[in-house]
Amino acid sequence: MIRTPLRPLARILKARETGENPDAIEAENLRLRHEEMRDKSRFQAEGRLLVLLVFFFCAYAVVGARMGLLSASEAEEPRARASGAAIVAQRADIVDRNGRILATNMFTHSLYAQPPNMIDKPRAARELAAIFPELDEKELLEDFTGKRKFLWIRKKLSPEQKQAVHDIGDPGLLFGPREMRLYPNGKLAAHILGGASFGREGVHSAEVIGVAGIEKQFDDYLRDPAQGGKPLQLSIDLSVQSAMRQVLYGGMKLMNAKGASAVLMDVHTGEIISMVSLPDFDPNDRPAPLLKGDPADSPLFNRAVQGVYELGSTFKIFAAAQSMELGLTNPSTMVDTKSPLYWGKFRIGEYDGHNYGPELSVTDIIVKSSNVGTANMAMEIGATRQKDFLRRLGLLDATPVELVEASGAKPLYPSHWSEITTITASYGHGVASSPLHLAAAYSSILNGGTLVKPTLIKKDEFKVGERIVSKRVSSAARDMLRAVVVRGTASFGKVPGYEVGGKTGTANKPKHTGGYYQDKNVNTFASVFPASDPQYTLIVSMDEASDNSGDRPKRTAGWTAVPVAAEVIRRTAPLLGLRPIIEKVGEPEVTLTSSQ
Asked: What residues make up the domain containing 415?
């Protein structure tokens, strides 16, 4: 650093020549040097203060921005970081054939406690018991004061419950975010959807897994992130499902039935448009399964799929169709109906002791529901051919519908298919299958004669199944079923404009100890509409139904299941887009009279 001398020689010599005091020059230079040093020090100090000011401004800006971000975000407890597989909670929606939501996800919270961090444990137990009546205050207090460091209190909370717990204000009561499965339509389609529950659980997430029905059958698909959240689209129609459940529930109560089921199926594709089993349940609050007793007593039991029953005279159309397909008969062929028919020690008679005379045509055998006539056709068909035909219709194997429960609902039939089995199976006894089996078999016979398999998944393309019967036989079978409604045992099944055809079936319920109840039936009506151009089959089955409106109970399908099915068709046909058929009437008579 170069400094100016305090006594510069040139100025000192000049001052001496002029008589000035040299000391004044030194004093002036010293003053200037001090001022320069002061200005430099002040500049350095001001620079340091400016840097410090900028630093504090940036620090306060960062703190303020972070505080603003925290205040605008959801409060979240600190989480411990640990290695392990992440819990994937996201699950795809399930929708009906029109895209309406059947099952979706809802964001909610769980509630857990960390007793070591709790301040007022007796108050917390008392307040929680008041918020959640199912919790016991004494048990909660024992858990809080024990050795446990972690305690689940509730796996799912409503927003109101969360706020009420938050108002308790105890730091040991904590919330964890999670998704839960929501079924916005409640009991509607409960047995189809099945339900979901929590699998692996953590404080901040839970794995949602299917426990029954479609939810379990397609669990991998619904949880697969590779699907990108694409909904699973079912074949059912929510509007039709709602209408059918309402009618079936009313019919079950009106007919004093223990339970009821119904299946509505597209005869050409096998798509299940609606399937109802009663009593049912709310999948949002799925009940616990029965651990003892009859499984059918549980609302979880799907009568349409798991209910394996003897379906009675609804099987008679199969014997008639096979007989015509084999060329043994045609609709007008006369068949022996002399009653009773004896086979060894067995006596086969008509229902309620009826006698239909020595002969009936094949059509009238179906119309009047003759056991003897059907048995004689079956004996001519033979055991081997009959069993093979029923197997091709899917009546002897578990149904392939996309429900986990279906694989366990296998039809029941004797291991040895004897001639007496051939006789009884022809009119629906000795062989037990489900209403869903029956719906698929009727569709296969009546859609022109090609096999269909039931499905709950909406599909845009279907392959035509193997041929079961010819178109001629299929048409003849439809005419027979139409005659049953027009002039036979299903006269209450008439629905103006929709040409209903169908067959009744009344079967005594078997006892667990062997034999049959005489006052408990399974009543079934298997129907098709419109009969002239079939579009849908409808199966309505009622367990222990009885019409008690008259002097004595009426327990046959014609009095119980048929009227309910007719009302289902009346309500659902317009929803399915079916236009009423204008029935032809006779030409009006014209009478000429004189103008006078």
From this structure: 239-287+296-572
